[in-house]
Amino acid sequence: MTRLQLTPDGRLHHLLTLEGLPESLLMHIFQLADSFLEVSARSVKKVPLLRGKSVFNLFFENSTRTRTTFEIAAARLSADVINLNIATSSTAKGESLLDTIDNICAMMADMLVIRHASSGAPVRIAQHLAERGLNHVHVLNAGDGRHAHPTQGLLDMYTIRHYKRDFSQLAVAVVGDVLHSRVARSEIAALTALGVPDIRVAGPKTLLPQGLDALGVTVTCDLNEALDGVDVVMMLRLQNERMHGSFISTTAEYHECWGLTPERLKRAKPDAIVMHPGPMNRGVEIASSVADGPQSVILPQVTFGIAVRMAVFTLLAGIGQGERS
Amino acid sequence: MRRQIIHRARLVDPLSGKTTTGSLVIADGRIVQIVEAPLDAPLPANLAGLAGETVVDAGGKVLAPALIDTYARLTGPIFEQQARLEAELRGATAGGIAHLVVAPDTDPPLDEAGLVEMLLERARRAQLAQLWPLGALTVGLKGVQLAEMARLAAAGCFAFAQGDKAVRDSLALFRAMQYAASFDFPVWFTAADPDLTLPGGAHDGVIAARLGLPPIPVAAETVAVSRLIELAREAGVRLHLVHLSSRRSVELVRRAKAEGVLITASVSVLHLTMTDRDIGEFDANTHLLPPLRSSEDREALAAAVADGTIDLITSNHTTVGSDAKALPFSESAPGAAGLVTLLPLALRWGEAQGLTLAQTLAPLTSRPAQLLGRSDLGCLSVGATADLILFDPDQPWVLDETTLVGPGRNTPWWGATLTGRVVQTWRNGEVVYRDSAIKT
């Protein structure tokens, strides 16, 4: 994907996945996000960096929370934001994915924020734009199937950086439904790129894909083992549709075996932080007392998410790229 | 008797394994004479063309039996549009294929004698490659009601199959095998457990894990292979397994053969030359059934064809329209076009295995001829049917708009440089393809 999302001189053209992005680029995004965090704290939360640019939110899969954060990020940069809820519009009338994209581009879009239920859909769209020579349109993957959710991965890393500063000494546990999780894939890619030496993944075998260990992580079914002495615990959401059928027995048993409880959390370092991409299933993957406890950074994650998305928007628009050292 | 004389050819006979040089004479649709001579020798006087006879100077290129592709799907409106069928058949002859086994999952499926007769009649009219239809084992390939196998056989079906539709009910499958065995009809099956074969999936390995594609474990194949072998053994039916994809399946077939089970197997040439790594950036043209697997699997398959555990190599050709491929990987229709790439990719496999040309061509010529019960095909000997190809095994060429013959653009080899190109194809002594770009 590197050829597709980076220009030959290493600038960000699309953001499709965190795989293959150099550490220096990730660090640059974090530095930009630092400056936007300050904007969000002002009473007038707006800068004119993207004035006149059209950002289209194309959500082929329903999402309120993620779409809203992208919308806020674009609005704070003074972009024009157009929301299309495609799940209930053109594709329902039989229009193909690439026809929809062609139409949006004919409306002079500058950026497409895409959420799709199929892995690789934004990649296919970026390939299509290249085939059409539409090189001024940028794709921002807002989550595709099980493949990637790069801005979530970035905001998670930004959160870790905020609390832990140095990635090179960390032990991080990623817990839960990795099989169906685009968030987990982006987190693993980013943690690896940032040089985190000890990445552990835990969950029942039904929710861990084969070949995970080849991604440079330690895989275990034992949550205790995964939590021992870690600095960061990243919980994953157990989606409702996985709660029935043959992935797990019951949510109660899941909570007992892989839910993060205060007792379990004691195995981690005393200053370990607890993260969750939301929305949470309290009492399933995470106990309320942990979610609301002193080690939880789940709400700061949301705040940081807006600053990180502002940083990605400005980079894609070609602003702030020159400041890289 | 109008003769065609092909001289200065490298004569490769996969049946005997022999390669010589010299001339070959065709008359009345048969090979009537083979004269061995050095490539630089002049045309023997007794072969000098009479008036009206054709003399082809092969210029040292390879003359071999035409290919027998033992599994291709004919998609699209082949019953409605003669042109569509002919386009596919033209692709076949351009790939050096004179005989094409057709899967029963056409639209509608080949479950009625009338449909089979119509398909064969239309193919005859085209005068290109010969079709070998696999009849549907069950009505509508639904896996419930047995199809009229005797009538389908009378209409031209030589074996029975389910396409990619598994029979879930083991009793129905067992009885279908017993019924076929009553007539000594072989049964041909692709092996994929329908529950384990997640739609839109990829091999359960690091690539599927990285890209977030639904994982299809090797067990999806081995569970089905084991079930088919055990049922076929008890039913006493001749079993042909189509398109193995894994090392474990090779082991199962090897053991069954050693135990005397009446079993043969094939592999698609894509699985001999590609792995799941070739999915790259979600290339929908690598979305195949069975899925491309690991390099360890590919190596085991490649060695198994060389040692004869796997009998045949197929194209697994499936034309998919660009709309059905212009989708994210998992939503795209599976299948790759493969008629024109069959020979160059098989040559690539043979070279990697260190095989002679004759050995390389055997799984595409003499071995399938044996399976089809036609000793006059797949060999280069006097009296054999003059189904031949002339090709240059060393010529590089690029598969693109200018070189494609047939409708199938949906190949992972699009734009790639291939080595080995068919110059001319004969069936029953008639030229059914001639490369317009090359003078012969």
Question: What's the topology here?
Answer:
The complex is a heterodimer of chains A (325) and B (440).
Chain A: H1 2-5, H2 23-41, E1 54-59, H3 65-76, E2 80-84, H4 97-106, E3 111-116, H5 121-132, E4 138-144, H6 150-164, E5 171-175, H7 182-193, E6 198-202, E7 218-220, H8 223-227, E8 232-235, H9 251-258, H10 262-265, E9 273-275, H11 288-291, H12 298-316
Parallel strand pairs in A: 1-2, 1-3, 3-4, 5-6, 5-8, 6-7, 8-9
Helix pairs in contact in A: 2-12, 3-12, 6-7, 6-12
Chain B: E1 3-13, E2 18-27, E3 30-36, E4 54-57, E5 62-65, E6 67-73, H1 82-94, E7 97-102, H2 113-126, E8 130-136, H3 149-155, E9 159-161, H4 170-182, E10 187-190, E11 202-203, H5 206-211, E12 215-216, H6 219-235, E13 239-242, H7 247-258, E14 263-268, H8 269-273, H9 295-306, E15 312-314, E16 317-318, H10 322-325, H11 342-352, H12 357-361, H13 366-371, E17 388-398, E18 417-427, E19 430-434
Parallel strand pairs in B: 1-4, 1-5, 6-7, 6-16, 7-8, 8-9, 9-10, 10-13, 11-12, 13-14, 14-15
Antiparallel strand pairs in B: 1-2, 2-3, 5-17, 17-18, 18-19
Helix pairs in contact in B: 2-3, 4-6, 6-7
Brief digest:
The complex is a heterodimer of chains A (325) and B (440). Chain A is an alpha/beta fold and 325 residues long.
Name of the CATH architecture of the largest domain in chain A: 3-Layer(aba) Sandwich
- What is the first-to-last residue Cα distance of chain A? 24 Å
Number of helical elements of chain A: 12
Mean pLDDT, all residues of chain B:
95
How many β strands of chain B by DSSP? 19
State mean pLDDT of chain A (0 to 100 scale). 93
Largest interface: A-B, 29 and 24 residues
CATH homolog superfamily of the largest domain in chain B:
Metal-dependent hydrolases
> What pattern of helices and strands is seen along the backbone of chain A?
HHEHEHEHEHEHEEHEHHEHH
Shape assignment of chain B? globular
Distance N terminus to C terminus of chain B?
23 Å
Strand arrangement across the biggest beta sheet of chain B: 15-14-13-10-9-8-7-6-16
| Helix content class of chain B | 25-40%
CATH-level-4 superfamily name of the largest domain in chain A: Aspartate/ornithine carbamoyltransferase
For the largest beta-sheet of chain A, the strand count, sense and barrel status come to: 5 strands, parallel
Number of E strands of chain A: 9
What class do helices, strands and sheet pairing of chain B give? alpha/beta
- Proportion of residues in helical segments of chain A: 25-40%
